[in-house]
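Continuing the series of single-chain predictions for the mutant panel. This is the parent chain; the variants come on the following pages.
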Amino acid sequence: MKISSYQPDQSGLAYSVGTTLDRFIKLKQSDFPFASGELSQLLRDIALASKIVNRETNRAGLSNIGGAFGQTNVQGEEQQKLDVIANIRFIRALSKGGEVCAIVSEEEDAVIDLNNKSGKYVVAIDPLDGSSNIDVNISIGTIFSIYRRKTPVGSPILEEDIMQQGTEQVASGYVLYGSSTMLVYTTGFGVNGFTYEHSLGEFFLSHPMIKAPESGSIYSINEGTQEDWNPGIKEYIDDCKVKKYSARYIGSLVADFHRNLLKGGIYIYPATKKNPNGKLRLMYEANALAFIAEQAGAVATDGNKRILEIQPTSLHQRTPLLIGSKNMVAEALQFSNKTEFSTN
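Parent structure:
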């Protein structure tokens, strides 16, 4: 019997398809010796649910799942049909996986206790960000945060398990459903991005160790609300225009954040007279993206305090958000903090 040693292909006939998300997770599992594989499986569960949601979003124009569902969520926002579908898909995947004991979702009023006594993790999730863009075929996304529970496994879920600062996250990420579908996540050891290959049904590593540029020339803000801004924010945006920066605002937080993370820029959703506490949700939007931003060398603040250090006091707590390239955020703060802001 003839035996030969394996030699990597040198012919160039079969190109490498790269590293799959599953293989990457396995390779990085040693970063979390305390997790015993549960965190890795949890990330796989999220990836699986995102593949299903990706399929649904791609079929939205053909299968009568676009448009409003006819109900509002706890924020008083009209739910879209895909909001409801995405919420069901992620909750189902997380409950069946066995690693999660509780879920906080934008679409649910209360904490979802999965009654899983062996679950070690709490997940906070916005199942479908930017859902108002579904019907016009503009990029939307999913945002998630993962925390380790504080109380002993097997005991009832308590408030301390849920109301954790962003600094306590063990992982966070987002999925962007756009011209291609990407999953970007961090476990505190840098940020990596994976692009979905439809024909193989796998996410492949496409953006290893993402680093945000320290400066940029893109600003993202809804200028339709400028009459309600802090005067300092107005001055900063005026300065951006003088410098001929590019205004880019999609209206999907994930899409705007993703572009600025890669190209260099700042995303601002400020406090306004109508929403003095901001509008974005701390636990399942701002915290997740702030963790990613900091791991990529960017910055996230509410205008006065680091986002990750804000102590949540309610499930659907809102916050202002300035996030992006660190030099741009620093400059925006110089403008916004030199003027007083009245909510009257």
